[in-house]
């Protein structure tokens, strides 16, 4: 299994500014910094440096040695598209310590500093390719430790999702939760295999029973006082689609179907590492949706932990089933907040694309807090509705609920409505429908696994409960 929690030095700030070289950021068409010598200004002009997006000009001193650099930030429009513009400099600069030689607005500075840290991520479990990176001195005014914790959390989520399913099954995911719990002094337990039936988790058992890798419900508890927050993450470690088998093209990225669990753990790491005064409960139903003679079938009717009956009309809509039992367990304690995260529907990608996960909530204060925190944390989310007229689409008549309504309409909304049926005792509930994958590399966002939602949830907790 991957060596998790090895938070890389490249994802931390440089220790000292004493030997750090200056880095000037220059917007497109802006004047060059007045601090440059006449020779450096002439050199930059000769190189044709204009502040274009991602452009870099290394500056020599009078001896020809490296003395600093200019980095092009482009236009306001190009910066909005990039999310982490300065991370492009981290990827191009020579190794060593660098310091920002310009003052950026506080919010922009924190976002760009975080992007620089995220650029240091490398997934090297199976192919080592160490590349010494440029390190940034923490800019004045930013909360350096908080940004480093966010980068640690992002590395954790990416490592978990990037690890292939042969090394990241339900047992290995449980081991990762136990390792995280050990770091923070949390209590971790698991209900495994046939014990799921004895303990009242029939949907988790049904989805995972066809695999030789036993299904389980993993639980982490941390904190003794403050509001109770339950985070529930879909941990489908690989999804074949079950008897409604996926085509090969759709199965290719299914190692990431535990992306909800990975991002819940990333969020939990931030909460615990920053010492947030909450009572945290994490629930992860961890399964492999496999094919064998005892796999659950289309047209089966299963009784959930909540007592609601569910008709199975597609075994490839398994994520909402395992989440249903876990959400019911979380709801039994009526916590102050429940948040579920899941790589749940392709419909969410059709609606909003891979970069912008939808979230659902009926609570206006929570919706506002999530939207604001998503913007502030460079962790974009977009609110979509629990649209009541679609409730009939998830009611098959022969059972209380249908796990896969026919017709293909409003797939993300109907999945969210399905999950909401299992949260009846808790006033504040939000569901995030994630993608957890970066299709094309961008500054601060390596191709592959990608964290979504964790920073927004952390920020929302801070706002809601005045942490």
UniProtKB/TrEMBL annotation:
Annotated Gene Ontology MF terms?
A: manganese ion binding; metalloaminopeptidase activity
Task: Please give the biological process terms from Gene Ontology that the record holds.
Answer: proteolysis
Q: Name one GO cellular component term.
A: cytoplasm
- Protein name from the UniProt record: Leucyl aminopeptidase
Per the UniProt record, the source organism is Rhodobacter maris
Q: Which family does it belong to?
A: Belongs to the peptidase M17 family.
Query: PANTHER family, alphabetically?
Result: LEUCINE AMINOPEPTIDASE-RELATED, PEPTIDASE B
Which keywords, in A-to-Z order, does the entry hold?
Aminopeptidase, Hydrolase, Manganese, Protease
User: Which Pfam families is this protein grouped with?
Assistant: Peptidase_M17, Peptidase_M17_N_1
- The residue ranges of the Cytosol aminopeptidase domain are 314-321
Q: Which InterPro entries match?
A: Leucine_aapep/pepB, Macro_dom-like, Peptidase_M17_C, Peptidase_M17_N_1
């Amino acid at each position: 299994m991957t060596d998790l929690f090895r938070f890389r030095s490249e994802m931390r700030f440089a220790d000292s500014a004493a030997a750090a070289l200056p880095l000037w950021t220059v917007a497109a068409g802006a004047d060059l910094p007045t601090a440059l010598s006449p020779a450096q200004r002439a050199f930059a002009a000769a190189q044709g440096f204009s502040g274009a997006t991602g452009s870099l000009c290394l500056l020599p001193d009078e001896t020809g040695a490296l003395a600093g650099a200019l980095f092009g930030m482009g236009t306001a429009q190009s910066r909005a598209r990039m999310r982490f513009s300065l991370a492009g400099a981290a990827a191009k600069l020579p190794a060593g310590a660098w310091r920002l030689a310009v003052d950026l607005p506080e919010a922009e500075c924190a976002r760009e500093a975080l992007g620089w840290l995220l650029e240091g991520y490398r997934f090297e479990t199976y192919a080592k390719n160490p590349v010494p990176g440029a390190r940034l001195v923490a800019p004045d005014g930013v909360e350096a430790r908080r940004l480093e914790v966010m980068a640690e959390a992002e590395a954790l989520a990416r490592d978990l999702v990037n690890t292939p399913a042969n090394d990241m099954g339900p047992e290995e995911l449980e081991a990762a939760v136990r390792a995280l719990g050990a770091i923070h002094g949390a209590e971790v337990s698991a209900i495994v295999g046939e014990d799921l039936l004895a303990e009242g988790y029939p949907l988790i058992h049904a989805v995972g029973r066809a695999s030789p890798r036993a299904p389980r419900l993993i639980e982490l508890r941390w904190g003794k006082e403050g509001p109770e927050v339950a985070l529930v993450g879909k941990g489908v470690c690989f999804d074949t689609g079950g008897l409604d088998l996926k085509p090969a093209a759709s199965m290719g990225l299914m190692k990431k179907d535990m992306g909800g669990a990975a991002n819940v753990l990333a969020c939990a790491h931030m909460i615990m590492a920053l010492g947030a005064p909450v009572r945290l409960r994490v629930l992860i139903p961890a399964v492999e949706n496999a094919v064998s003679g005892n796999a659950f079938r289309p047209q089966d009717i299963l009784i959930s932990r909540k007592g609601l009956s569910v008709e199975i009309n597609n075994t490839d809509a398994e994520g909402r089933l395992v989440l249903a039992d876990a959400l019911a367990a979380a709801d039994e304690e009526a916590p102050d907040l429940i948040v579920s995260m899941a790589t749940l529907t392709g419909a969410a990608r059709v609606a909003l694309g891979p970069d912008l996960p939808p979230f659902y909530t009926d609570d206006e204060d929570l919706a506002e807090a999530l939207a604001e925190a998503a913007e502030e944390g460079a962790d974009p989310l977009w609110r979509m509705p629990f649209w009541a007229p679609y409730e009939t689409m998830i009611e098959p008549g022969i059972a209380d609920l249908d796990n896969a309504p026919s017709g293909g309409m409003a797939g993300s909304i109907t999945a969210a409505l399905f999950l909401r049926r299992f949260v009846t005792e808790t006033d504040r509930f939000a569901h995030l429908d994630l993608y957890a994958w970066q299709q094309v590399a961008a500054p601060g966002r390596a191709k592959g696994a990608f964290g979504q939602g964790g920073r927004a949830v952390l920020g929302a907790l801070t706002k809601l409960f005045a942490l």
